[in-house]
Amino acid sequence: MLIIGAKGHAREILDILEKQNKAEEIYFYDDISIDIPYFLFNKYPIIRNSEDINNIKDKEFLLGIGNPHLRKIMAEKFKSLGWKLVSVISDSSIISNNEVILGDGLNIMNNVFISCEVRIGEGALINQRASIHHNSVIGNYCEISPGACITGNVQIGNFTSIGAGAIIIPRVIIGDNCVIGAGSVVTKNIPDNSVAVGVPAKVIKEVEPFNE
């Protein structure tokens, strides 16, 4: 198993895998950071270029980075090399048995709550203690930060980041490629490519569209 990234979020994924007894052959991939050792925790190899991954027999990988754009870019890179994108789901998460649809390549972290009739797209990160309530839709490669509350019938577009502790009230629609600030309360729809912060949240600027 290869974890893309070797910093904080990737290490939290490792914690989950160790508790699930799935960390026998774990490798990390990080071709950017220069301040990391060659072995994480003196045990797990960190690979620094794509040529060296050819020696790994198990061609499955997890996304261990938070940024939605980087998650998408790295997912496409490794899928193009013939690797399979897989999910990690913490045993402490609570996921309804009723009409929940989960995409590939998810990170569902500790103490997450996912209610009934929820759909979560490919590559999304649902971080610790986040809650997603009934009939909500989370787009591809979204980042739902720790403690965020997505109430019922909410729609969140692709590549959108919801900050820690943010609250999205029922029936709100948030567009693609948005950033919602930590602690914000979103009471109205947010258009694509927007940054919104505050209580209630207001759009403070626009960002460039993300070209997939």
UniProtKB/TrEMBL annotation:
Transmembrane segments: none annotated. It comes from the Bacteria. Gene3D superfamilies: 3.40.50.20, Hexapeptide repeat proteins. Substrate binds at residue 66. Residues 2-78 form the PglD N-terminal domain. GO terms for molecular function: transferase activity. InterPro entries: AcTrfase_PglD-like, Hexapep, PglD_N, Trans_hexapeptide_repeat, Trimer_LpxA-like_sf. Keywords: Transferase. SUPFAM superfamilies: Trimeric LpxA-like enzymes. Belongs to the transferase hexapeptide repeat family. PANTHER family: ACETYLTRANSFERASE. This is Acetyltransferase. It comes from Ignavibacterium album.
